[in-house]
Amino acid sequence: MAKTMTKTNGMPNGARIGSRQPLKTLGRALRYALRGRNAVLFVISLFCIVLSSYASVQSMAMIEDLLIQINVQLEAAKIGLEVTYMPILGVILKMVIIFAIGVIGTFLSNRLNVVLAQSTIRDIRDTMFAKMQYLPVKYFDTHTFGETMSRFTNDVDTMQELISGSIPNIVSSLVTITVCLVEMLIKSWQLTLVVLITVFLMFFVIKGLGAKSARYFIKRQSSIGKVNGYVEEMMNGQKVVKVFCHEGKNQANFDKINEELNDNSTKANKYANIFMPIMANLTYVQYVLIAAIGAVLANNGLLIVRDATVNYSAATVALISAFLLLSRSFTRPINMVSQQFNAVVMALAGAERVFDLMDAEPETDKGYVTLVKAHMENGEIVEGKQGDWFYCWKHPHGDGTLTYTKLEGHVLLKDVDFSYDGEKQVLYDITVDAKPGTKVALIGKTGAGKTTIANLINRFYDIDDGKIRYDGININKIKKADLRKSLGVVLQEINLFTDTVMENIRYGNPEATDEEVIAAAKFVHADEFIKRLPQGYDTVLTHDGANLSQGQRQLLSIARVAVADPPAMILDEATSSIDTRTEALVQRGMDNLMKGRTVFVIAHRLSTIQNADNIMVMDGGRIVEQGNHEELLNQKGMYYSLYTGNSIK
Amino acid sequence: MIELIKKCVRQYKKSSILSPVFVSVECVFDILIPFVMTFLLEKGIKAADTQAVIMYGALLIAMSLVALLFGALSGASCSTASNGFATNIRHDMFERVQEYSFEDIDKFSSASLITRMTTDVNMVQNSYMMIIRIAIRSPLMFIFGLVMTIMVGGPLAAVFAIVIPLLVLGLVFIFKKAMPIFRKLFKKYDRLNIVVEENIRGMRVVKSSVREEKEIEKFKKASDDVYDNYTKASKIVVLSSPIMQLCMYIVVTLISWFGAQLIISTGGVALKDTQLSMIITYSTQILMSLMMFSMIYVNLTMAKASVDRILEVMHQEPSIKNPDVAVTEVKNGDIDFENVNFSYSGKGGVNCLEGVNLSIKSGETVGIIGGTGSSKTTLVQLLPRLYDVTEGSLKIGGVDVKDYDLTALRKSVAMVLQKNLLFSGSIRDNMKWGNPDATDEEIDKALKLSCADEFVYRLDGLDTHIEQGGANVSGGQRQRLCIARALMSHPKILVLDDSTSAVDTGTDQKIRQGFKEFIPSTTKIIIAQRINSVMDADKIVVMDNGKITAVGTHDQLMTESEIYREVYVSQQGGGDFDGENND
Predict the structure, then answer these.
(1) Separation CA B263–CA B156 (nearest Å)
(2) How far does B198 lie from chain A, in Å, by closest CA?
(3) Are residues B428 and B284 part of one domain?
């Protein structure tokens, strides 16, 4: 119950407040909620709700029988007959039985609804997450972190509210309305007509108020967005604010939007707040009208009563008394449903965003070449882990034959063109041949296309034209998972997970034993600092390794690649956020790791790439110069001018 | 809560008082209506008197309309009061945070300040709304309802002596049982959110390590935990409605049974049959208000945490304050550090700066070099009193920084922070941060000096819109704009904290050249990773582990400082490919 309260802290600026296709979304949410076993649970729960509603309606309706029985006895007493409580006891016993069933019904339906709603929400969360794992990188380019995150938090919360709050409420309200209507019709069609007419009139009030309230509600939402946005911007920039002594000006700006929020929010709340008393008191007016009209009818002998065991006036009093209570049971759920309206509209917008994520196109993989363990037998490669085993590519061909190619880490790009959106080309005719065990460096200004190349090799994106081959196999034919396993990646931005150091390193290779993990850490010189952590390898890292230094975090991400032991790897600006002295430490680890592997180094610091076998200088998506350090210096081109610190004009 | 109310209700006191008054009046009518109704039934229907029916009917409708009026008035004033209250809280918090020093901001962290000003205030606003309306209404309804029942039904009211304790016990049981599970649930929620967050942020790592399936498993576990706890807690919470029903049914049954006996045995004297349904109506109101009250209680318990978090922000005394008698003019850009020690945690904490002695003459250009964690940034942040020295003294223009008026000092010491930000608005708006009265010509001059003019005028000039944080310009462009902004106030001292790291080497050099020519009397302090950026400075300070290890010119340091030499060698030919070349 408390969790859902946090969602009120406004929506991101510009977020849709209403839903595009409310009915379609609602239908889909309902279908989702009623899958499999849930459909059965729902039917049982619905049955229980009917029982519960029936009991609650009866608790009001039975007053008629009771009053009639009382009057029968009163009259009997008047004419001197003996008073018996047996008929009254009969009515009471009937009540007790109905009530018992009602309480059990409420208990069961509530419990079932909890399971129904929570399991649906769990399924939605799980499906969303699983779906997200296989979304292409492109999706994350076009959706910010906050956007994706809020689908899991705000949007799922509002959906939860819908499924566990609004929907059961509406269902049980509808059931109660129906049961009540039936009961009223049985008792008196005349009075029922009065109730229906007054309810119809109340609808106009609801509609009018609802429309006004919705208008201010939307205004308030946008004001909340503004205030939250301003607070966020200024709290994050508070240090800059201080440096420029801008406090006074900020306060004035803030007060302005704060007042605006106050204004809109007060109005929105006003409508919501006066809704309740207006509806409640209109119910009283309705109540009086029933009594008065009923009375006028009765006094003129026009009110039709079923029971003729007592005198007419006693019977009408009994009927009207019951009707007064019933009319409240009838009107209350109608109010309830109309109040839920705003919440439902909000929730459907959230549901729509959840479904949008679920509907996003996942990464496709048509690869069929897989990575297998193999060994040599009589000069031929045979699948299976025996003796001196190694990895190789298992390549089934169209004609049913199989070829095995040893995994060596030979990466070849030939005439590669690429654009992110199919329009603006960012890479032109890229040809790079990285032979096994060589080090290829990609350098150039931001936006020259270095990282893009790395992203193409591990197929975060697919190329528009040209070829990329890994050990001679077109990478489009290789299963993505296996391709990525054969490539280690160290990025500038380091991501550690909330888990032990051991598990964070093992991330690179889930099959690695503890010993292998430690060996990998030693290999890249990460072992020294890990041992000094409070619990060594069992130290739990939190908040992306917040208590480690940048250098230490990078060493862990290098160890992660070491434990995976891939024949080829990509170092994308791996040391650029580390100062030069720390870099020296990281470099030791990196040097060890690079030995004997095909390495793509993307760097802006020239010191890290001088010893590369081949340096590609990139500019505007093209390779403009290539060669080793000396060759490039002799060319006296772009590399030379940057190396000597003179920028090219 | 009371403290916060006292502090922030202010001009909304009137509405805050009116709301409960109005709601009380509404309550009185709410309670009287069923009572008057019995007259209509008794005198109107039973006596078959249409005249009476019309009279009582009119009276009842009038009463309903009065109740409606007061109810609506109460709703309106409640909304004015609670929103105004929240607005004042936000105002006060924002104001207080504006006075914070860096140290205070660090203590809370921006993220936490944001939640406090949004979610927590919201929570308190909702509670306040409850306090001045529903929290008044439900006990009143409870008491009035009970009084009426006793008045009319006499001994029948004894039923409540059985039912109310039952309901209270039930609610207490639910509260006691569910609360600990909810607390556990919040932790499970955090875990769930962490997994999502780490997976979105680390998406590339997950994909390149081919860990999708393992992560899905991990998420499933977290999600199952949430499910288990949520279901467990909810199953307890939803017990409240069958318990409530049970109580209601017990009341109805008992009142029916004993009421019937009472009516019949006294021949309708002690209790009239028309009053029976009225008593049942009151019973509903009594039990409902009890239920409401328990909800308010739960809500207030949860709001208390928010109140505490808000008060914490308001109570935090700014650790750096203006002196009473302040020097309002900074004479020149001389800087003197004397035996300065500094620790983020105050005296006795781990010193980040130790024994710093440094003298800088007005107009000098000083470079600072050192690895991450060597406290370069800490050193320069002492200049505009973003932090205060823990021990020793710092003088600017011959006067201790603590004696200056803060605004005057910070206007004279312009600082370009390492993690710098632009704010949403035009480039002109951003530039005016440095000097609100600046003309376009002045802005133009500053942009030229920071080499930002060429790209600014390729965009929409000074009207170019900047997005929050400066997200729509590149890193190098942002840095140049931030430098220009700092130049706007014509500072005596200009500090660049690693402010040209994304600017290409050539432009970097051009900027420094400009400084020399156009602002010769300003003291320039440049923190840099690249030796290139500081090589031609009058003085270079080498820092290591919070201490100054060497001071001198490039040539002196090449012979004297091992650290300096090491850095220099590692950057040999240290051009930087990543610089953005006049983009």
Answers:
(1) 11
(2) 6
(3) no
Q: What is the DSSP letter of B532?
A: G
Chain B residues touching residue A544 (CB < 8 angstroms): 198, 201
Residue in chain A nearest B197 by alpha carbon: A149
What does the pLDDT look like over A133-183, one tens digit per residue? Answer: 888 887 887 777 777 887 887 788 888 888 888 888 888 899 999 999 998
Its pTM stands at 0.75
Token digits for B297?
């209680």
Residue B494: CATH number of its domain: 3.40.50.300
Q: How far apart are CA A335 and CA A280, in angstroms?
A: 9
Q: Does A301 touch chain B (CB under 8 A)?
A: no
What burial class does residue A481 get, using C-beta atoms within 10 Å of its C-beta: 0-12 exposed, 13-18 middle, 19+ buried? middle
Structure tokens at A238: 């508070």
Q: For chain A, what are the domain ranges?
A: 17-187+342-362, 189-304, 370-406, 411-643
- Interface A:B, Cβ pairs < 8 A: 489
Q: Please tell me if residue A277 touches chain B, with a CB cutoff of 8 Å.
A: yes
Domain A411-643 fold? Rossmann fold (3.40.50)
Place of tokens 């639910």: B174
Cα–Cα distances (Å) from B213 to A31, A457, A511, B219, B485, in that order, read: 27, 22, 14, 10, 49
How far, in whole angstroms, is CA B302 from its chain's centroid?
A: 17
pLDDT tens string B481-512: 999 998 988 899 999 988 887 777 778 888 88
Give domain A17-187+342-362's CATH superfamily.
Answer: ABC transporter type 1, transmembrane domain (1.20.1560.10)
- B442 contacts: CB under 8 Å, gap ≥ 6: B435, B488
**What's the token pair of residue A303?**
């009110």
In order of A50, A180, A181, B27, the CA distances from A173 in angstroms are 10, 10, 12, 26
**A471 Ramachandran zone, left/alpha/beta (phi>0; psi -120 to 50):** left
Residues A102 and A94: their CA atoms lie apart, in Å, by 12
Candidates A74, A111, A231; nearest CB to B267: A74
Our count of domains for chain B comes to 2
User: Quick check: helix, strand or coil at residue B259?
Assistant: helix
The pair of structure tokens assigned to A256 is: 């302005």
Q: What are phi and psi of B526, to 5 degrees?
A: -120, 115
Q: Which residues from A are below 8 Å from B265, CB to CB?
A: 83
Tell me, what's the pLDDT at A450? 78
**Could you tell me which of B163, B305, B126 has the C-alpha nearest to residue B244?**
B163
ipTM of the complex: 0.79
At A372 the three-state DSSP class reads strand
Minimal C-alpha gap between A379 and chain B (Å): 32
In chain A, which residues have their Cβ closer than 8 Å to the Cβ of B231? 114-115, 118
For chain B, the average pLDDT equals: 85
Cα separation of B367 and B521, whole Å?
16
Q: Is A648 on the interface with B (CB under 8 A)?
A: yes
Count of C-beta atoms within a 10 Å radius of residue A144: 12
